[in-house]
Recover the amino acids of this structure.
DNA sequence: CTGAAAGCGCTTACAG
DNA sequence: CTGAAAGCGCTTACAG
């Protein structure tokens, strides 16, 4: 019962304001913007202009400004996201980006794709001037695909984990984090430690596997291939992998602890254990990776490797802004890549000392 | 080690393509767009133009197009979001909107605010032509504030739950959903049923309280004020309220079941119960409202009232597109408000029959 | 079937 | 200190 009929009146333009204030549109532009030329507008004129603008409710037309300045003041965020899972990882990233974008007066446009490989053409399409730069949320992006990105748009990638000419990459020392949490499990008395990894072949997944194996080796624990299973960084796969493992080996073969390559995998793993009647951490300790907010919503709360996702996302935005400036010739700043953040451990209730030791 | 030096060459324009094809820019525009005029371009010319455009990698400049057409082809999504909680509700909404936007060739820009009241000015600022219309994710928006929204932008609101002139509102039959899940708890043998409500005064919260009380009344169960506590639709508040209640009344006074006004509240409630050593559903049944993806990530999985959030979000986008068309005079379609979706029950493991009955 | 002109609302040199 | 002009790249009438 309520669709507005007609645009009552068109929005005020610079010319309108100029007319009202008795000056040219150009003077209004100079006065309202913080350009160097603006310094040369007299205080009196400036006040007149401000009053007229206020009265007319003047708002600059972004399209016109973008056309003249070749800047949209909007940055894109591309992510592969099926949407049938919460993807708390992305939520953290997005909020970090949006928060930072406000500081730069930028607007954030989100593009979601189903699959980097099949949708790369769409990514290119979107780089047609509607955004000034793009942040790729890229854990699943391969080097080959990254190489096909257009060259006329500045990119910054989060977790691409592999260097591509022209793209600044932001990541964390995942290998170390994986090592540290595995070592921590060992120090709690665990020996048979399972790792549910991300998709094999993905650099991030391999790094976590390496950290895991390094910690085992340092502790003199022989690597047991039956304790390394794969899940594609999703809750769904985490649950499945755990279920299949229990079916194959039986509950009596259960490891002391399970280190999952992501919080999502860990959540699936928790579910599988619960539905098999196994208790965490009494029967088995579980930990994840990322420290998304989800790690604090499971019962018990999930021990995990913390990556400062918000900070990393904010940094991505900052670096992108710098690159956009330099792209437009405003600066010559160069940004080193990759930028690596430190991981830390967040030990919580899902992990405990082994009974033999604690009891 | 990699910041690109200079824009190698400016992007091809319509004029460039025209020059290459030996026609005017206007002919290129007509040929490339699906305008009525385009029908009058000969097949031969059209082919020439297509080839030239392809060869030059022509991509229309969105800013120029937006300026000429007065359409940005982008829609805004505004949400109040502190970001210190996952807000799975918003994640569902956003993915529904993005999915639908692709079908309409629209781009989605996300604006987050801390507080409708203090940030309303920012909402207005953002309605300056950079978006063609706005979807308000508005559970916390009051009628008074909604009334101050600018009149020159088409709005559609999700869960505003209160009619405002000029705004189409999309909601669900929450009162009924709250009634149904409460009645369902009763039918499982529960008598002392607690309700942790959303913020008092919010229409959505009051509706759920009403449904809860109606079901109790129908079952001849007297309303017990000590079993109605408030939490502001957040996990944090859900945990706090539950904790405080246990402190105040003691575990022995625990109700049979707890109906939380949102999945987020329920998650906090689950956490509080777990940290108090109480088991769900053995000691107490718990259910939520929304059926966000989070309801399936808790252990046990959360029984809840399902609102089809994705569908509702998609509908919001569709309605908004219709309103934008009519706003631009392309159509005179009118959309009734509110649009009400049906809720359904999703019973899961967090709820069980009372022992007295089942045992 | 195709083109020349004007205009969308802003900014950026260039004059004065 | 301020203005007239040209241009950003597109679309929309209007001619022919």
């Amino acid at each position: 019962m309520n669709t507005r009929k007609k645009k009552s009146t068109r929005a005020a333009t610079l010319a309108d304001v100029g007319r009202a204030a008795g000056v040219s549109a150009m003077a209004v532009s100079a006065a309202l913007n913080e350009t160097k030329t603006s310094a040369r507008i007299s205080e009196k004129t400036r006040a007149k202009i401000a009053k007229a603008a206020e009265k007319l409710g003047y708002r600059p037309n972004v399209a016109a400004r973008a056309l003249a300045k070749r800047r949209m003041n909007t940055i894109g965020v591309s992510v592969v996201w099926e949407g049938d899972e919460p993807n708390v990882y992305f939520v953290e990233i997005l909020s970090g980006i949006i928060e930072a974008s406000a500081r730069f007066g930028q607007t954030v446009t989100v593009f979601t794709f189903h699959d980097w490989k099949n949708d790369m053409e769409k990514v290119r399409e979107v780089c047609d001037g509607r955004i000034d730069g793009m942040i790729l949320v890229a854990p699943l992006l391969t080097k080959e695909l990254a190489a096909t990105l257009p060259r006329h748009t500045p990119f910054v990638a989060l977790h691409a984990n592999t260097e591509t000419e022209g793209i600044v990459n932001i990541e964390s020392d995942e290998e170390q984090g994986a090592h540290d949490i595995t070592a921590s499990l060992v120090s709690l008395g665990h020996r048979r430690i399972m790792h549910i990894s991300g998709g094999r072949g993905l650099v991030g997944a391999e790094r976590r596997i390496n950290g895991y194996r390094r910690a085992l080796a340092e502790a003199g624990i022989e690597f047991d291939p039956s304790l390394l299973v794969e899940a594609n960084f999703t809750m769904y796969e985490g649950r499945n992998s755990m279920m299949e493992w229990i079916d194959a080996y039986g509950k009596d073969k259960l490891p002391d602890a399970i280190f999952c390559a992501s919080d999502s995998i860990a959540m699936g793993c928790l579910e599988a254990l619960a539905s098999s009647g196994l208790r965490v951490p009494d029967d088995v300790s579980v930990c994840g990776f990322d420290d998304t907010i989800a790690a604090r919503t499971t019962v018990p709360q999930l021990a995990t490797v913390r990556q400062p996702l918000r900070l990393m996302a904010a940094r991505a935005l900052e670096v992108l802004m710098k690159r956009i400036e330099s792209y437009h010739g405003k600066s010559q700043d160069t940004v080193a890549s990759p930028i690596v953040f430190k991981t830390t451990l967040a030990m919580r209730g899902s992990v405990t000392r082994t009974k033999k030791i604690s009891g």
Q: What stands out?
A: Chain B has three domains: 14-60, 74-170+309-331, 174-307+345-358. Chain B touches chain A through 69 residues (CB under 8 Å). The first helix of chain B runs from residue 14 to 21.
